[in-house]
Every structure is written in C-alpha cells, then in structure tokens.
Design brief:
By secondary structure, the chain is α/β, with parallel strands linked by helices. It has helices at residues 18-28, 52-56, 62-65, 69-76, and strands at 10-14, 36-41, 45-47, 66-68, 79-82, 85-89, 94-97, 102-104, 107-110. α1 (18-28) links the parallel β1 and β2 (36-41). α1 runs parallel beside α4 (69-76).
Amino acid sequence: MTYRENRPPVLLLIGSGHAHLFVLEALARGRLGRVRAVLVSPEPYHVYSGMLTGLIGGLYAEDEVRLDLPAIAKGAGAEFIAGRVTAIQPSEGRVRLEDGELLAYDVLSLAIGASVTAPRVSGGTMA
C-alpha cells in the first residue's frame, strides 16, 4: 500500500466497538503518528457494556454509562461521521454509507461491537 506524500494516511474506523475506543485513546496520546482518523457510527453514543448491569440495577444513571462519540473523536483529533456502512469496496479503498456517500481510506478497521434486537421494555429510558 502506498500513501500520497503530502497527506497522512486515512484510518477509517467503522463502528464504536471497544477496540476503536482504544485506537482513539492512542491517537489522543500521539501514539499513531501522522494519520487522519475518521470514526463512523450510526449512533452518537457508545453504551459501555461493563456498566450496563449497574444501570439496570439502579447503580448508575444513563449519562454515566454512555460515551459521547463525537466528543471523544474530537478530543482525539479524529472526525466523527454519523452513518451506517452498507458496502465495503476494498479494491477501490472506499466504503459506501447508507446515504450514498463514499468514504476513501488507506487503512480500514471494523469494530462494530455487539447489537441486541429486543422488544422495548415498558418504562425503559435508553434509546
């Protein structure tokens, strides 16, 4: 893989799984060198699964278990895009978002985390 001399490589992070939170931390600490990082996630929040049972048990409030992805990305010097990837085109080095936008990348990482589809619980407040 070759990078253009006058621009940093684009690191495209698809999803807000735990691994990408650590990548953003490394970026914020200057451990990744010269890179343009872009985080793509359909939701602006990541719910920390390690604290979910505490939320359900009443030990934590909603805002204590939610991580603000745009703020975390900004603090790390990364861009946040709210969107859902519908296609990966590795031969072209790009992905297509649900709205049709194409994002180019040099390095692609997937860490979408867990997703649970369940019926809404009466009285639940997480959205």
